[in-house]
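Entry for the shared binder. Reason: the reviewer on the internal report wants the predicted structure included alongside the sequence.
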Amino acid sequence: MRLKNKFMLLALSSFFVAACAAQPAAKEETLMVSAASSLSGAMDELAAGFEQVNPGIAIVTNLGSSSKLRSQIENGAPADVFLSASAEDVELLVEDGLADVKSVSPFAGNQLVLASSSEIGEAPDVKSMLASFDGTFAIAEPASVPLGGYTKKALEAIGMWQPLEGQLIYAKDARQVVTYLESGNANAGVIYASDAALSETVKNMDKMPLESVEINYPAALLSNSEQPDHAGKFLAYLLSEEGQAIIEEYGFLTAERLQP
């Protein structure tokens, strides 16, 4: 009798194990974040931190220049959150009804840095340094990349846009400017301070005059998001103490340090 009971218990145990194994795993939901390429390093850590406190939600990141990402969204590409290096690109999406105006939140800031792949000599200021520079100079495309537009504005402010025009090499996004410098394909260029802080080979020569350009990164929730609740959670995490610590770690200005 005892032997029979043991067989019954084993049979029941096997049944319950098999039944549990047959249960489908909880479906992981994805949140699509379109982010400016200059945020690439920070996004990896932001995604990991968000996923840790929000199990069951996986971040999928789409990186590119802000104008390219905006164009993708305008053409129906799936996205839940837009992290832009340009307020203008967010404003255009708001005007078209593709982004929620109430959600728009500046979450980071940046500065422009004159950088080089080798020593280019000393000078009392940025203008003097550039006036004597005769090598190739890398910048992002001014017409389509926020970094390029900021760079042109800053160079015009110190009267160095026209003198340098014949030496310019154009990059498709912020990361490519860094690549040109690291590979030696350009002798100098203008990059974000956040990228300069992460590069082991690019030399940070000097910051461009701060008064010449203001660089704020706004976030926005997209109107066609299929995960509006999760998108709101990500925006809250981005603006939280933990999210802002990551932003600062990667060389950006935190939201509280942005100019009003």
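Summary line for the report: The chain has a mean pLDDT of 87.
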